[in-house]
Specification:
Blueprint lengths: L1 E7 L2 H14 L6 E3 L6 E9 L2 H12 L6 E3 L1 E7 L4 E6 L3 H15 L13 E7 L4 H11 L9 E3 L1 E10 L2 E11 L4
């Protein structure tokens, strides 16, 4: 199984992101748009995971203690080399601390932290195929600066399983972990 740990988005944020993406997408835009039910803020990507590691993860992540905290999306952006269009997430002390605690817990199950700095975001679309750079440039020209999204309070984080398919990935929640009074 392929697993990752993420913060789910509040419905009003998903609705705002959907309005934005519907206003930008078209049939022949050269982008593969993520579905609203796949949007999340990744804390750690784990990848291929054994049943034994899954059991360890479930136990260790239950021990993670962190407060609930406010989350604010911060405009949109592009990871050009990866061909990704995303909604940014304002980094807060509480989110960074949660990410560190999650990584510490998963390290006990044999997972390593990523080499890249933590850059929370919500992936909205990926460029398709050979024309990806052109599609990304075209999309950049359509995106207006200063997109605003509602804030929300993160009250949980989830352990997701990813199922890869020809139309993109599908995610299922495997375990939920409460933030705040736990």
């Amino acid at each position: 199984m392929r697993l990752f740990i993420a913060i789910p988005l509040a419905l009003e944020v998903v609705d705002a992101l959907e309005r934005l993406s519907l206003g930008l997408r078209s049939e022949a835009d050269g982008m593969r748009w993520s579905s609203r039910d796949s949007w999340h803020i990744t804390l750690q990507f784990l990848g291929k995971t054994s049943d034994e590691q899954f059991g360890c993860l479930a136990a260790r992540l239950k021990d993670v203690r962190a407060p609930a905290f406010a989350v604010r999306l911060a405009g949109t952006g592009f990871f050009e080399r990866a061909g990704v269009f995303f909604a940014g997430v304002k980094v807060s002390t509480e989110m960074v601390e949660l990410e560190k605690r999650v990584v510490a817990a998963t390290s006990l199950c044999g997972f390593a932290a990523e080499d890249r700095p933590f850059h929370p975001h919500v992936t909205l679309a990926r460029a398709k195929g050979d024309g990806g750079r052109h599609a990304l440039r075209r999309l950049k020209g359509l995106v207006k600066e200063g997109a605003a999204f509602p804030s929300f309070v993160a009250t949980e984080f989830l352990l997701f399983e990813a199922f890869l398919g020809p139309g993109g990935s599908r995610y299922e929640s495997r375990e939920r972990f409460r933030l705040g009074n736990n």
